[in-house]
Design brief:
heterodimer; A: alpha/beta; Peroxisomal Thiolase, Chain A, domain 1; eleven-stranded mixed beta sheet; 13 helices; 15 strands; globular; B: 83 residues; mainly alpha; Non-ribosomal Peptide Synthetase Peptidyl Carrier Protein, Chain A; Acyl carrier protein (chain B); phosphopantetheine (chain B); fatty acid biosynthesis (chain B); PP-bd_ACP (chain B)
C-alpha cells in the first residue's frame, strides 16, 4: 500500500422507503420485509405494473422554507434532506468552506417536474414549463442546492451513470480527497422517478416485475422466481474526509473507504455481458485498490436488482472473483426496491451499517435460490466477523462501480 | 373584470408564488424588499399573469416595485384586452 490519503466515513443520512433515520433503515433491513406497495399517487391503468417502493411521509419543513421547497423537484428535496442529515451527523468538520466539496448522482434528475410540464400541455407539440423548469430539472440541481444550503465553496458536481450513479458519486468523492482537491466531501445520490411515464418506460423495456397480485413479494433478488426489479425512490449521502483529520477532531468514524473499482461492460446498452465480465473486473479493481484479497471480504452487498439477467451475471461474476458460495451476499433491493441513481449510495450506507452492526441483513423474498446462481445469498440475518465489506452497483449503459469499506 | 377582482387575483398569485401570508401582500408592499421576491419570482408572476390575460411584452414587469405597481400593470392590460 502506498502512503496515500486514508478516507473516513464520518456522517450518513438517508431518505428511503424503508426509513429516514439510520436506525430505522437498519431495523427495516433486518426485518427482511419488502416496502413495495400499490401506487396510490397516480392512476396506474395501462402501465402494466401498479406498485413501487415510495416514501409516503416526506416532510421537508425542518429543512426548507416553503419557497425553497417550491423551487426544488422532489429528487432535490430528498437529496437535500439526506445530505443535511449526513452533515449534521458528521458534526463540525472544521475545514474551510473552500476545501469542502459535494458530488451528487442521479439517473434522471427532476423527473416529476419535467413530466408535469410536458403532460400539462399534451397535444400542443411542446410542454408548458414554468420559469423554474430549467433549474428544477437539471441533473446538477441537487449538487447546487447542497452547495448553496451548506455554503460549500469547493467543487460541486453531479455524475450520471444510471443505476450506479450513487456509487460513482462516492468514488468521485474519494478521488477529490485523494488528489488533494478537497478535505471533506459530501457525496451520494438521489432519485424520485416513480412517475407514470417512467414506470411505463421501464415496464416497456421489460425491466419491472409484474407481480401485481402480491407487490410485497415482487422484489426477490437471486430468487428463482424473480421477474424484474421494483422501482423505488430515495436518497442517501455520506460525509467523507481524511481519516487522520477525522480522528484528530474526535469525529465518530463509521468506516474507512479503502477501495473503489470502476469499469465498463462496453457490450450493450442494457444487458450485461456473459459471465458478468464487467462486474468481475470492477470487483477485482476495487480489491486491488484496497490492497485486499477476495478471501478478506466478509460480505458483499450486491447490486442484486432482481432482474433475471442482472442477478445471473452478477452471481457469475461474484463466483468468479470469490469462488462459488465463498462470501455471504445480500441485496438491499429486496427491501428498498431499486432507487436507480440513489441505489448505490443507499447500499453504501447499508454496507457501512452492516459492518458496524456485524450482521448481514437478509435478502427479502429469497425462497428458492436460483440454481444458476452459485452464490451464498443470505436469507436470514447472519452474524459476520469485523472485516471489509463490498458494495456493487451496475448501471444501464454498462457502467460499474464497486466500493469497499473497512472497519477502523 | 372589476378593479377589485384584478386586485384580488394579483394578490392571490403573489402570495402563492412568494409563499407569504396573503395578509402581507398589501398594495404598498415592496416585492423585493418586503416580500423577498427575486428575478425568478417575477418571471413566475409574469407567466401566471399571461395565463390569465394573454401574452405580455417581455419587459412588462421590468420596473414594478410594489404589489400596487403589478395591479396597475394588470389593470392596463385588462383595459387593453377588453377595450
Amino acid at each position: 500500500m502506498s502512503s496515500r490519503e486514508r478516507i473516513a466515513v464520518t456522517g450518513m443520512g438517508v431518505r428511503t422507503p424503508a426509513g429516514s433515520r439510520l436506525k430505522e433503515l437498519w431495523n427495516a433491513l433486518l426485518s427482511g420485509q419488502s416496502t413495495a406497495r400499490r401506487i396510490t399517487s397516480f392512476d396506474t391503468t395501462g402501465i402494466g405494473t401498479d406498485f413501487a417502493c415510495q416514501i409516503h411521509d416526506l416532510d421537508v419543513t425542518d429543512y426548507l422554507t416553503p419557497k425553497q421547497a417550491a423551487r426544488m423537484d422532489r429528487v432535490t428535496q430528498l437529496g437535500v434532506c439526506a445530505a443535511a442529515d449526513a452533515l449534521g451527523d458528521a458534526g463540525n468538520v472544521r475545514v474551510p468552506a473552500e476545501r469542502q466539496a459535494v458530488v451528487t448522482g442521479s439517473g434522471f434528475g427532476g423527473t416529476l417536474t419535467y413530466e408535469n410540464a410536458l403532460l400539462d400541455a399534451a397535444g400542443t407539440g411542446r410542454g408548458n414549463p414554468g420559469p423554474l423548469h430549467v433549474p428544477m430539472v437539471m441533473p446538477n440541481a441537487l449538487a447546487a442546492a447542497i452547495s448553496i444550503r451548506h455554503r460549500i465553496l469547493g467543487p460541486s458536481l453531479s455524475v450520471a451513470t444510471a443505476c450506479a450513479s450513487g456509487a460513482h458519486a462516492v468514488a468521485e468523492a474519494a478521488r477529490l480527497l485523494r488528489d488533494g482537491t478537497a478535505d471533506v466531501v459530501v457525496a451520494g445520490g438521489a432519485e424520485a422517478c416513480v412517475t407514470p411515464t417512467v414506470m411505463l418506460a421501464f415496464h416497456r423495456c421489460r425491466a419491472l416485475s409484474e407481480r401485481n397480485e402480491a407487490p410485497e413479494l415482487a422484489s426477490r433478488p437471486f430468487d428463482r422466481d424473480r421477474d424484474g426489479f421494483v422501482l423505488a425512490e430515495g436518497a442517501a449521502f455520506l460525509v467523507l474526509e481524511n481519516l487522520e483529520h477525522a480522528l484528530a477532531r474526535d469525529a465518530h468514524v463509521y468506516a474507512e473507504l479503502t477501495g473503489c473499482g470502476l469499469s465498463s461492460d462496453a457490450h450493450h446498452i442494457t444487458a450485461p455481458p456473459a459471465q458478468g465480465d464487467g462486474a468481475a473486473r470492477c470487483m477485482r479493481a476495487a480489491l486491488a485498490d484496497a490492497g485486499l484479497g477476495p478471501e478478506e471480504i466478509t460480505h458483499v452487498n450486491a447490486h442484486g436488482s432482481g432482474t433475471p439477467l442482472n442477478d445471473l451475471a452478477e452471481a457469475q461474476a461474484i463466483s468468479a472473483v470469490f469462488g462459488p458460495g465463498a462470501v455471504p451476499v445480500t441485496s438491499t433491493k429486496g427491501i428498498t426496491g431499486h432507487a436507480i441513481g440513489a441505489a448505490g449510495a443507499i447500499e453504501a450506507v447499508a454496507a457501512v451499517l452492516a459492518l458496524n452492526e456485524r450482521a448481514v441483513p437478509p435478502t427479502a423474498n429469497l425462497r428458492t435460490l436460483d440454481p444458476e446462481c452459485a452464490v451464498d445469498v443470505v436469507a436470514q440475518v447472519r452474524p459476520m466477523a469485523a472485516g471489509p465489506v463490498m458494495s456493487n452497483s451496475f448501471g444501464f449503459g454498462g457502467h460499474n462501480a464497486t466500493l469497499i469499506f473497512a472497519p477502523v | 373584470m372589476s378593479d377589485e377582482e384584478i386586485m384580488t387575483l394579483v394578490r392571490e398569485r403573489c402570495a402563492s408564488i412568494l409563499k407569504v401570508d396573503p395578509s402581507r401582500v398589501t398594495e404598498d408592499a415592496r416585492l423585493r424588499e418586503d416580500l423577498e421576491a427575486d428575478s425568478l419570482d417575477l418571471a413566475e408572476l409574469h407567466v401566471v399573469l399571461e395565463e390569465e390575460w394573454g401574452t405580455m411584452p417581455r419587459e412588462a414587469l421590468a420596473d414594478v416595485r410594489t404589489v400596487g405597481d403589478v395591479v396597475a400593470r394588470a389593470r392596463e392590460l385588462v383595459a387593453e384586452r377588453t377595450g
